[in-house]
């Protein structure tokens, strides 16, 4: 029976509290503060997007830190990882604090409900007590009237006895003339019954209120425990956030400490890389000089050959004329004039220098099976050392051990270690649009070709790696026009 009554009792008590406090209590109770989370699928998608964003940021960082020492790269990655956790840690702390605030609010609401219910309980108790005193008074009146009637006392005299009036006039002053003893007795008995009925109803209401008070006290105790748990959790989140901030400050201090040393290393490294590019320029100059020397030698040989041919032709002509004069006995003869002139030879020796096409897209093929540029050619800002520098090539995705191919047919100029470029292969592709065209493939883990070897387009040159001053496995691809670097993406297609 109690189970069936409990919801009704709770509802009744809730309405009583609402009437006393002047507020409406939500039937949802503590659940009204619950925040509903997004769907599971949405959370998964959001997590994937966040991971993709972080992976891209890390890839950008690795690209920006290319040619930087491993210690700086590692510290920067740790800083990036720590910074990536910061928003989530701050969000977790904010959420934990919100939950604490909600719990404290629920505590206050419950305390207010409890105070209101206890006040209601006390008010009912006071009303019952006052009415019980009134019942006692009425019962005493009825008993006194009954005793007086039993003793044969008149109505007026009996009323005087009951109410303590010394004279009939005094009684009349206190009560209206129409109230006789019999009516007073009847009314008193009716009042006793009515008050008793009201008090029985009040008792039922009071029982509901007291049961509700018990529930509120249990809820208040549970809220105290829950609030303490949430406050502890919020303190843990705050400590985690502060730990992250302290970690970041420590890493920044570490990076600042190494900054001057790294700047010096960068100057030396850039000098080495410049020396490598000077080598390429010298190779171009040497090739052009050799080709120019060969051209001049060919021209000189052609000139000498022509002179020798002309000399022989002249000697032959003189001999012929002498023979004719001897045969004619010294008479004059008219030669008809014309001997073989030896012909004017046009030397088609000058090279055209190749195609004169104006479009360069597609001149080179992709050197990696992954057609993804992770960092473009151009000026790049160093996020740790805070200065601009030229990124002289294009970084192309190539996971560790990915095969790397020749972008165009040519001759291998080197397959060796080169400064910050690590294991490097340089291929001379000859001329395009009358200009020298070369390409280099850097940070390789190993080679598949050697110096002087001729390769075809798409032939295996080696495998990608992380050698030299590279932050992660990838292909650093450079293209040179007359020995100067240029944007490879103008030619790849």
Automatic annotation (TrEMBL):
GO terms for molecular function: metalloendopeptidase activity. The keyword Signal applies. Residues 390-488 form the M23ase beta-sheet core domain. Residues 307-361 are annotated as: Disordered. Keywords: Coiled coil, Signal. Residues 37-148 form a coiled coil. It comes from the Bacteria. CDD domains: M23_peptidase (cd12797). Pfam families: Peptidase_M23 (PF01551). SUPFAM superfamilies: Duplicated hybrid motif. Residues 335-361 have a biased composition (Low complexity). Gene3D superfamilies: Glucose Permease (Domain IIA). The keyword 4Fe-4S does not apply. InterPro entries: Cell_wall_metabolism_enzyme (IPR050570), Dup_hybrid_motif (IPR011055), M23ase_b-sheet_dom (IPR016047). Residues 307-324 have a biased composition (Basic and acidic residues). This is Peptidase family M23.
């Amino acid at each position: 029976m109690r189970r069936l009554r409990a919801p009704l009792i709770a509802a009744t008590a809730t309405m009583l509290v609402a009437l006393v406090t002047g507020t409406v209590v939500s039937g949802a109770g503590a659940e009204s503060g619950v925040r509903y989370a997004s769907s599971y699928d949405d959370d998964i998608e959001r997590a994937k997007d966040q991971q993709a964003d972080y992976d891209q940021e890390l890839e950008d960082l690795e690209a920006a830190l290319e040619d930087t020492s491993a210690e700086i790269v590692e510290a920067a990655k740790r800083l990036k990882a720590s910074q990536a956790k910061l928003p989530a840690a701050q969000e977790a702390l904010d959420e934990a604090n919100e939950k604490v605030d909600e719990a404290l609010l629920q505590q206050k609401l419950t305390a207010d409900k409890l105070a209101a219910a206890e006040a209601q309980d006390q008010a009912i108790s006071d009303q019952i007590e006052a009415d019980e005193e009134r019942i006692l008074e009425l019962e005493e009146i009825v008993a006194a009237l009954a005793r007086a009637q039993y003793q044969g006392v008149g109505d007026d005299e009996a009323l005087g006895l009951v109410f303590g009036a010394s004279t009939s006039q005094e009684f009349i002053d206190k009560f209206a003339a129409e109230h006789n003893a019999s009516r007073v007795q009847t009314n008193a008995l009716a009042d006793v019954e009515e008050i008793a009925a009201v008090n029985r109803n009040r008792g039922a209401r009071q029982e509901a209120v007291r049961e509700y008070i018990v529930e509120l006290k249990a809820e208040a105790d549970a809220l105290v425990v829950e609030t303490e748990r949430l406050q502890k959790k919020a303190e843990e989140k705050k400590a985690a956030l502060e730990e992250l901030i302290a970690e970041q400050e420590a890493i920044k201090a570490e990076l600042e400490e190494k900054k001057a040393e790294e700047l010096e290393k960068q100057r030396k490294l850039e000098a080495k890389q410049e020396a490598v590019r000077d080598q390429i320029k010298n190779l171009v100059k040497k090739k052009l000089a050799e080709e120019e020397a060969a051209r001049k030698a060919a021209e000189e040989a052609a000139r000498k050959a022509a002179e020798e041919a002309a000399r022989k032709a002249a000697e032959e002509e003189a001999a012929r004329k002498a023979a004719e004069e001897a045969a004619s006995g010294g008479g004059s003869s008219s030669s008809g004039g014309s001997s073989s002139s030896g012909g004017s030879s046009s030397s088609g020796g000058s090279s055209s220098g190749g195609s004169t096409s104006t479009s360069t897209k597609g001149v080179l093929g992709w050197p990696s099976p992954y057609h993804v540029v992770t960092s473009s050619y151009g000026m790049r800002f160093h996020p740790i050392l805070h200065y601009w520098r030229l990124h002289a090539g294009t970084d192309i995705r190539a996971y560790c051990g990915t095969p790397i191919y020749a972008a165009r047919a040519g001759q291998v100029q080197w397959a060796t270690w080169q400064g910050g470029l690590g294991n490097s292969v340089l291929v001379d592709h000859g001329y395009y649009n009358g200009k020298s065209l070369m390409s280099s493939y850097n940070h390789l883990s190993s080679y598949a070709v050697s110096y002087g070897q001729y390769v075809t387009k798409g032939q295996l040159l080696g495998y990608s790696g992380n050698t030299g001053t590279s932050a992660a496995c990838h292909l650093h691809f450079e293209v040179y026009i007359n020995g100067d670097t240029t944007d490879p993406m103008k030619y790849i297609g």
